[in-house]
Structures are given as C-alpha cells and as structure tokens.
Amino acid sequence: MGPLSLLAMGLISCHCMHILVRCAQHFCHRLNKPFMDYGDTVMHGLEASPSSWLRNHAHWGRHIVSFFLIVTQLGFCCVYIVFLADNLKQVVEAVNGTTSNCHDNMTVILMPTMDSRLYMLTFLPFLVLLALVRNLRILTIFSLLANISMLVSLIIIIQYITQGIPDPSQLPLVANWKTYALFFGTAIFSFESIGVVLPLENKMKDARRFPVILSLGMSIITALYISIGTLGYLRFRNDIKASITLNLPNCWLYQSVKLLYIIGILCTYSLQFYVPAEIIIPFAISKVSQRWALPLDLSIRLVMACLTCILAILVPRLDLVLSLVGSVSSSALALIIPPLLEIVTYYSEGMSLLTIIKDALISILGFVGFVMGTYQALDELIQSEHFLTFPNSTTFT
Questions:
Q1: Less packed terminus of the chain by CB within 10 Å, N or C?
Q2: DSSP letter for each residue of 213-254
Q3: Share of the chain above pLDDT 70, in %
C-alpha cells in the first residue's frame, strides 16, 4: 500500500503544481505582469470567480495562502534542525567505537555526549548565517551542494540496505488505517514543495522549459521516495527510524554518509527559509522608512531562524507534528487549493465537466486527508505517554 500510495500522491502533487503554474501564467498574460506568486494567483482567481461573494473577499485568498506557506516552510526548517541534531549526536556518541570494518560492527561503546537539544543550539549560528542570505540565485549554490552531498549519500545508503534483505513474504500488505492517516500527512509534507514552484519559475532564464523541468524533478523525487522507503522497510522492518541514516552501522563509511546528509540538510534549510522570509519581510518593511529597511530585514531573519530552533527544541514528538503540519497546511496548499483555483480561474471561460469532476475529487481527497491526518496526529500527541518528554534524542539498543 505504501509504494502505491506514494506513486499516486506524487502524480497528484505534480499535477497540482502544473495547475498552479498554468493559472499564474494565465493571470500574468491577462494583467500584463512579469511574475505572480501563489497568494497573488489565488487572489486574482477569486476576483475572476462568477461568485460576487468570492470577488468581494478575494484578498482573503492571499492571506490564507500566506499563512499556510509560512506554517509549512517553517515546519520544514524545524524538522531539518531535529534531523541535523539526531545525526550529529549519533556520530559523536559512536566516534570511539567507529571502525573501518562495516561488516563486524555489532557492538559499540558509546561516548557520553550532550542532549540532542544542545546539538540544535550548536547549529543555530550556522542557520542564522544561512537565513541572512537574501538572494535566491545565491541559494541555488547551496541547493546544488545539498543535491550533490545527498546523491552521494543515497548511493551509499542504497548499496547497504539492498544487502541481506530478509524474506518479505510475511510482511503485511496493508497497515492499520490510523497508521495510514499519519502516513498521508507525512507523505504530503514530503511532496509539498509547491511554495517554491513559482519563485523558481520566475528566476529561470527560459521559463517556457519550466513545466518539463518540474515534471522531471518530481519524477526523480517520487522514484527516490518509493525506492528508499520500500527498501528501507524491507531491510529494517519495524526497527526503522525516522531518518534512515540513523539505522546505518558505525563504521567510517556510513558515518561519513551521516556527515554528508548533515551538509545537505543544512544547505537546504536556506532554500526552505526563503519562502516565509519573502512573505513576512516585505510586509514589515512597508511599514517603516527606507532608513530602517535593511536593519529590520536582518532582524526579522535573525528572529525567524531562532524561532525555528526554539520550536524544534520544544516540540516533544516531531514525527507527529510533521504529520500534523503536513495534514493541515500541506494538504491545503498542495491538494485542496490548486484544483479549486483552476475551477474559479477557467469556469467563466468554459470548462469541461470531466475537468470539474477531476478537480473536485482531488480537493475532496485533500480535505479527507486534512481531517483524518489532523485528528490522528492530535490524538496521538495528546495520548502519548511521552508528551512531556523529549524523545528526539538518539537511542541505541
């Protein structure tokens, strides 16, 4: 069920991204504008709606999209910080037991080390420096470094997890429906990069090639999610951890993979941080004089970077919060809003009944996932016995 669901969600997410790009280009041509972001596109879509009530409240479309984008992208940043801390903590704890032999490394003498929350604080200065980068073209350099380091890491991880896979015939084909609700939120959170789609299109030299680039990128990402997720579960089964790097043995080859993973995630942080910064900072700067624009810009970036670190430290069950953020904001941005946007944009110009049905079904799917995923994540957060503890720290058996 997992691989099939990931494939379906990847196709639907990619389709919704194409809908957003097409609607944005439609209003750019109509209004003679060079660029339009997600919020502007939704606002103009509501203004083009045949409903007078939607036209009168079109500005709320921009505010709703901005809210969900800020929550989603800052949620990404918080998750990244916890993964950075967990992987670095495991490397440091096992440093005196790390060997060059990756086959006979079953027992490790752990070295006492800091709480994972202190590791999060050690990353804060680097995160602040990355957050102060204001140019998206410069951030693409960090993105390239992240892609290279993660590609090398994935190749090494795949060659490890494909060795010695147990007989999968006894594994269940379908998990409990409660597990599926959490899976939905986590998966849509992973696929939800719709917030950076339009900014990236705007920065391309030839925007006409963007739909092809988008489809290719999403195809690669979907294939990687399915293959790594499936192979990881077949190899480690119920012992698999939140990040598959935490399942790797303590030899120098796989410790270097964790370090590469840390570099990749650290570089990606700045790209995810760009979206909420571009929403909040221009609004704040518009309220002050030009003299205070730059100091206010840098101050907001500093505060936002610190906020993501504080939230990562305070959240007790980040796996559930990841699913919660995915169910709430990512479902809205990636599945619910784009199909409805297509309807309000093109309805007055004539749409086929089949397209309307398709868009309605996608939005209903997103809403069902929104309700079920949100309920299940909140229920497990409340019912968890470790609600007041911090289980993000790495554990060993």
A1: C
A2: HHHHHHHHHHHHHHHHHHHHHHHHGGG--SSGGGGS-SBHHH
A3: 91
For residue 99, the SS3 value is: strand
CA 391 – CA 319 distance, rounded (Å): 10
**Both tokens assigned to 306:** 């610190």
Residue 9 contacts residue 188 (beta carbons within 8 Å) = yes
Phi, psi (degrees; rounded to nearest 5) at 99? -125, 175
Q: Give the pTM.
A: 0.81
Residue 203: how many CB atoms within 10 A of its CB? 14
Looking at residue 135, what DSSP letter applies?
-
- From residue 102, alpha-carbon distances to 99, 243, 254 in Å are 7, 19, 8
Are 187 and 365 spatial neighbours (Cβ–Cβ below 8 Å)? no
What pLDDT is stored for residue 107 in this prediction? 42
pLDDT digits (tens, 9 = 90+) for 12-66: 999 999 999 999 999 998 888 888 888 899 999 999 888 888 888 899 999 999 9
